[in-house]
Amino acid sequence: MAEPDAGTQLTLLDGAGPVGEERLAQLYAYPPELTRCWVRSNFIASLDGGATAGGKSGDLGGPGDRALFTLMRGNADVVVVGAGTVRVENYGGVQLSVAARQARQARGQAEVPPIAVVSRSGQLDRDMKVFTHTEVPPLILTCGSALAATTTRLGDVATVIDCSNSDPDQVDLRFALAALAGRGLLRVLTEGGPLLHDTLIAAGLLDEICLSIAPALVGGAAHRIASGPDETRMPMRRAHLLADDSGFLYTRYVREA
């Protein structure tokens, strides 16, 4: 099991039994020989569908969820998040073990993937952890109307990218993914928030979802993992289902071809 929760034992619920480190790596590997961005989302939810507890998704997690979180980050070329999630979850840069870095080098990846922040306004404070606690400067995926001001404010601590299409006041996620692909960042991991996730789903840009189900009910007005103005139906195929002794379920679903 990947650090930091090496003592957690995961079991495949198809009769295969306990999963070792090598098999786990295979289960969460990206497709080989990608020619476009493959977008994977990683979320956690309660039994009643809440994406947060106490306002944060991290408060739902356990050791197994944290280990898979680290593993999936270690496999990705880039981690894409919305600006609101960066603020609420107090995001810093990706932190990886020596072993994870060596594995990335062996696959031809950079040692540490950057965080890419989707922000239409570009209004991000320079003292946020995403800028101050990172080995790799983040990417800011913004729109044309905010490009100049965002570059002036953050250009020395981040790479600011115009991801507009015909509307200079909006971030077009297709253009954002094309910009990432142009930098060789094809293995995309998104961690939210719900609005960004919903936009990816509605645009048909999400290839798979890895959803951890926490053995808890939260009630209240907790957000879902996807939240937007319109309903979208996207058929998915189950790739695998894992469990641990703490009662968590770890699912992976891939979009139907």
Automatic annotation (TrEMBL):
The keyword Oxidoreductase applies. Keywords: NADP, Oxidoreductase. Pathway: Cofactor biosynthesis; riboflavin biosynthesis. One of its GO terms (biological process) is riboflavin biosynthetic process. SUPFAM superfamilies: Dihydrofolate reductase-like (SSF53597). GO terms for molecular function: 5-amino-6-(5-phosphoribosylamino)uracil reductase activity. Pfam families: RibD_C. Coiled coil: none annotated. The keyword Cell inner membrane does not apply. This is Uncharacterized protein.
